[in-house]
């Protein structure tokens, strides 16, 4: 049995536009189930799209640079076995195009009336071009089309109008422009001077390296946060000598191949325990800045360094998971992140983020809040230090912690108290049981 | 003879509907405008020797026909007494009143009007031969609206006063006993309507296989049926081979499938199309490309290949219609004033002011078929329209085409009394993206001819009650 099946973009979370970075198949290729057919990249991650069927590729419907979303047809496959894909009857539709104005021979022109014909009477006349074929597809009245033109908007790019039957209204055009403005700017808001371009050639050779999409979008997001949020960073130290001793004991008991527990797991737990005591840290400011949205769930984002840029997979419901479970989950997600296989919904829904540079070094830094979250915890490398215990200096393993918070939501004293609480949990992790 | 030099922020060459609209719009947008028109009055072909005078004569024709046809229904006036001089002066009074109106608008807007024939001498100058001598206008930007003229066929004896073009026919100097109309398009058939009413025996010769080529055949059929009875002959797929000026008349010989023997006519009207005036204005001296037919190509903003010179109306392409020219003229003026205007209309409606009138817009059925567009069609017959029957007419039709999938209006055609007035609703519906449901849910007053448009939409949505359509 052979039949024609379609490979479509699966549900990848609430993402409207996904860039096609690479297409790995072409017509005539024989592919297996789960074989990668294309590489897609969202603003947060890139991912390999597996084939939902096996067989011979009949036609490839995408090319690098295309934007796709859930349900977009990727390829048609002449399936050899029970290909799972179900043909979609709405795949192609004929869209009427009336764009070409009827070229009306207002005055009939039987020029051939002549025995000696006039020069080339049937040469095509320059017909006036009315509208692009796209215009007619957009459900918008002439005044809205004019308004869009004035603002430089191609109405056919506005997917849905808010009027009756999806009619595009002036407000839809305005919103489209607003959205384009917030998404499109790379640096600098209104009135902020941009960094002038510099010709580096007098100083030596240069090479242009295009930023990855993740890096570009991360940059936009960070700039936006930097400009919008009044950020304060507070530094703290925790004595984790006991915690490390306990962790080493635990890991010593683990069999070979079992996921080892890292210090980060305790930090995650300590953070969530503190968030439960300080609900303002598990919150977002409403867009109008008038109210605080308090969250009743505890999801922690972990910044992961990957070859393509920084990504932040989210561990969900941390308060209900054991340290062992969290260790396994984070190991999996980090691996996925490094392979570029994180799905958008793996990175959504965080409440607070931890950025740990502990594996590298450092003494302190000032992380930038991952808005709309209100705080971020930075961690650098723990160091054995002489600590005065009242009588003498004793060697203690000290962990530097940096908390950056949105000062519109968190007061300085509140921040200090929060960090004191986090420190307390780390110093004596038995308190996590209380 | 003196030579005068003027400056213009915007120069408009040609004072027809497109030209004066462009000039007025530019003036309203704050530009200092010089308008050049070769005739002593504004309004161009449309107002002086086209749309307006022909409609005056067509109204006279309609009165004659209606009065005659109503004899059967109980009101007789007897044979009409036609005073062509009086009709002529009535017609002229209409154009004069509109000419005067335009002259007033020129003054109110402080547009400088120069009467004379203007030609380009460079990319920034036009010289005008006027009665007071040569005037040179330096312009920053220009709009060419120099229009078109009737196509002449070189071998015909054009010097003979019995060989007419549309301008001659509108002069109404005499009512020929036998009139041949060469060209079964809109202009030819409108003049046929007029002269038939005035008493001429009409013959029409058309090269194509239907009158009003380009219009869907079903819309033309009611007109074709009616004039077949009224006129002596309608020869389709036939061409005129030669016209010989004899003392007793113009001897015309024909060629083609249905060609008759050569025949004598008292007058022959040649209405075989119009020719753009692009080659008469020395456009090449301004660097503007004009093709060999005389058309000037423009972009959607009406801009020619020369950045600061625009062109609009008949001279940029078919259809050669005043309402197209006016729309384009305003666009050109707005673009010059820095607006982001462009030609974005979805359709340019067409109207034949014949009896019955034919009007259509959007996609024709022929085009839909050619382009492979799937459509739903509805044709509402006016024999079911009370209003039409009360007017003593039952041949009308209202046809609409809607997208098979979305129901969106694609095109419409109407044949019948006042079709030209009725088509506007369809044009608005198309521009607004209305579908059959929108149209059928719109309350149309009853009894009107306009409601036939609503009925046609109801035929598509399946909600019509004024007809019974078996499922």
Q: Brief description of this entry?
A:
The complex is a heterodimer of chains A (about 425) and B (about 475). By secondary structure, chain A is of the alpha+beta class. Helix content of chain A is about 25%, strand content about 20%.
Structural write-up:
The complex is a heterodimer of chains A (434) and B (471). Chain A is 24% helix and 22% strand. By secondary structure, chain A is an alpha+beta fold. Chain A has three domains: 77 residues, OB fold (Dihydrolipoamide Acetyltransferase, E2P), CATH 2.40.50.100; 47 residues, E3-binding domain (Dihydrolipoamide Transferase, Irregular); 203 residues, 2-Layer Sandwich (Chloramphenicol Acetyltransferase), CATH 3.30.559.10. In chain A, strands 9, 12, 15, 16, 17, 18 and 19 form a seven-stranded mixed sheet that branches. In chain A, strands 1-8-6-3 form a four-stranded antiparallel sheet, with no helix packed on it. In chain A, α6 packs across α8. The longest helix of chain A has 16 residues. Chain A starts with a strand and ends in a 7-residue tail after the last helix. About 13% of the residues of chain A have low confidence. Chain B has 471 residues and is of the alpha/beta class. Chain B folds into three domains: 209 residues, FAD/NAD(P)-binding domain (3-Layer(bba) Sandwich), CATH 3.50.50; 110 residues, FAD/NAD(P)-binding domain (3-Layer(bba) Sandwich), CATH 3.50.50.60; 106 residues, 2-Layer Sandwich (Enolase-like, domain 1), CATH 3.30.390. Chain B has 13 helices and 22 strands. The longest helix of chain B has 25 residues. Chain B is globular and about 75 Å long. The model of chain B has no long low-confidence stretch (mean pLDDT 95). The chains are: A alpha+beta (434), B alpha/beta (471). Chains A and B meet through α2 of A and α6 and β12 of B.
Question: Any key phrases for this structure?
Answer:
heterodimer; A: 434 residues; alpha+beta; OB fold (Dihydrolipoamide Acetyltransferase, E2P); Dihydrolipoamide Transferase; Chloramphenicol Acetyltransferase; 3 domains; seven-stranded mixed sheet; four-stranded antiparallel sheet; 8 helices; 24% helix; 22% strand; B: 471 residues; alpha/beta; FAD/NAD(P)-binding domain; Enolase-like, domain 1; five-stranded parallel sheet; 13 helices; globular
């Amino acid at each position: 049995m052979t039949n024609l099946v379609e490979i479509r973009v699966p549900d990848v979370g609430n993402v409207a536009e996904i860039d096609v970075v690479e297409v790995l198949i072409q017509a005539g290729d024989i592919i297996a189930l789960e074989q990668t057919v294309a590489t897609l990249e969202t603003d947060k991650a890139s991912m390999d799209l597996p084939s939902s069927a096996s067989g011979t590729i009949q036609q490839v419907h995408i090319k690098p640079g295309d934007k796709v979303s859930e349900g977009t047809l990727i390829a048609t496959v002449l399936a050899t076995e029970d290909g799972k894909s179900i043909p979609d009857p709405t795949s192609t539709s004929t869209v009427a195009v009336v764009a070409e104005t009827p070229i009306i021979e207002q005055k009939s022109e039987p020029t051939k009336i002549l025995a000696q014909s006039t020069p080339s009477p049937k040469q095509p006349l320059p017909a006036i071009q009315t509208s692009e074929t796209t215009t007619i597809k957009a459900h918008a009245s002439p005044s809205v089309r004019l308004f869009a033109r004035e603002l430089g908007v191609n109405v056919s790019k506005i997917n849905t109008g808010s009027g009756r039957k999806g009619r595009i209204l002036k407000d839809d055009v305005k919103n489209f422009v607003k959205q384009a403005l917030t998404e499109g700017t790379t640096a600098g808001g209104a009135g902020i001077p941009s960094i002038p371009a510099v010709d580096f050639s007098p100083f030596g050779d240069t090479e242009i390296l295009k930023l990855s999409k993740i890096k570009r979008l991360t940059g936009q997001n960070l700039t936006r946060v930097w400009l919008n949020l009044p950020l304060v960073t507070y530094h703290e130290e925790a004595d984790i000598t006991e915690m490390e001793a306990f962790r080493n004991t635990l890991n010593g008991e683990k069999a070979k191949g079992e996921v080892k527990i890292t210090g980060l797991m305790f930090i995650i737990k300590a953070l969530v325990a503190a968030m439960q005591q300080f609900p303002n840290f598990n919150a977002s400011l409403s867009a109008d800045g008038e109210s605080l949205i308090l969250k009743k769930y505890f999801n922690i984002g972990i910044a992961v360094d990957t070859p393509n840029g920084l990504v932040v997979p989210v561990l969900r419901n941390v308060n209900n998971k054991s340290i062992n479970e969290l260790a396994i989950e984070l190991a999996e997600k980090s691996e996925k992140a490094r392979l570029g296989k994180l799905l958008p919904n793996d990175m959504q829904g965080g409440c607070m983020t931890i950025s740990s540079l502990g594996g590298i070094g450092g003494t302190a830094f000032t992380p930038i809040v991952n808005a709309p979250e209100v705080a971020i915890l930075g961690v650098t490398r723990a160091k054995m230090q002489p600590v005065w215990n009242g009588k003498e200096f004793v060697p203690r393993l000290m962990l530097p912690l940096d908390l950056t918070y949105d000062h519109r939501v968190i007061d300085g004293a509140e921040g200090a108290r929060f960090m004191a609480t986090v420190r307390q949990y780390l110093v004596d992790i038995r308190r996590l049981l209380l | 003879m003196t030579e005068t030099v003027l400056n213009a922020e915007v120069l408009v060459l040609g004072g027809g509907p497109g030209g004066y609209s462009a000039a007025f719009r530019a003036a309203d947008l704050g530009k200092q405008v010089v308008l050049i028109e070769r005739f002593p009055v504004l309004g161009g072909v449309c107002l002086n020797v086209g749309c307006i005078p022909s409609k005056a004569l067509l109204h006279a024709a309609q009165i004659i026909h209606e009065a005659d046809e109503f004899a059967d229904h109980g009101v007789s006036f007897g044979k009409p007494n036609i005073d062509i001089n009086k009709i002529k002066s009535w017609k002229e009074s209409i154009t004069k009143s509109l000419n005067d109106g335009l002259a007033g608008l020129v003054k109110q807007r402080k547009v400088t009007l120069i009467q004379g024939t203007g030609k380009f001498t460079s990319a920034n100058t036009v010289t005008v031969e006027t009665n007071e001598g040569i005037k040179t206008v330096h312009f920053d930007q220009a709009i060419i609206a120099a229009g078109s003229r009737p196509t002449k066929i070189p071998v015909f004896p054009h010097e003979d006063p019995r060989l007419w073009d549309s301008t001659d026919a509108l002069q109404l100097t005499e009512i020929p006993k036998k009139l041949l109309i060469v060209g079964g398009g809109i202009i030819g058939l409108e003049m046929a309507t007029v002269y038939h009413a005035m008493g001429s025996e009409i013959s029409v010769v058309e090269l194509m296989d239907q009158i009003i080529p380009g219009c869907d055949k079903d819309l033309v059929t009611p007109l074709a049926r009616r004039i077949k009875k009224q006129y002596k002959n309608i020869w389709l797929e036939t061409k005129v081979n030669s016209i010989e000026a004899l003392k007793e008349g113009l001897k015309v010989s024909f060629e083609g499938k249905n060609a008759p023997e050569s025949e004598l006519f008292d007058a022959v009207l040649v209405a075989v199309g119009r020719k753009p005036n692009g080659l008469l204005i020395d456009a090449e001296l301004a660097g503007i490309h004009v093709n060999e037919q005389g058309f000037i190509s423009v972009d959607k903003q009406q801009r020619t290949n020369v950045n600061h010179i625009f062109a609009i109306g008949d001279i940029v392409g078919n259809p050669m219609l005043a309402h197209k020219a006016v729309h384009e003229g305003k666009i050109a003026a707005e673009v010059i004033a820095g607006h982001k205007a462009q030609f974005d209309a979805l359709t340019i409606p067409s109207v034949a002011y014949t009896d019955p009138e034919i009007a259509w817009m959007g996609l024709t059925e022929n085009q839909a078929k050619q382009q492979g567009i799937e459509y739903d069609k509805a044709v509402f017959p006016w024999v079911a329209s009370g209003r039409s029957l009360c007017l003593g007419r039952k041949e009308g039709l209202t046809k609409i085409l809607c997208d098979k999938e979305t129901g969106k209006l694609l095109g419409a055609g109407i044949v019948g009394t006042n079709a030209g007035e009725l088509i506007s609703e369809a044009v608005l519906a198309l521009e607004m993206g209305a579908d059959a449901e929108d149209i059928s849910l719109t309350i149309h007053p009853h009894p009107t001819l306009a409601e036939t448009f609503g009925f046609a939409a109801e035929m598509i949505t399946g909600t019509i009650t004024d007809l019974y359509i078996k499922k």
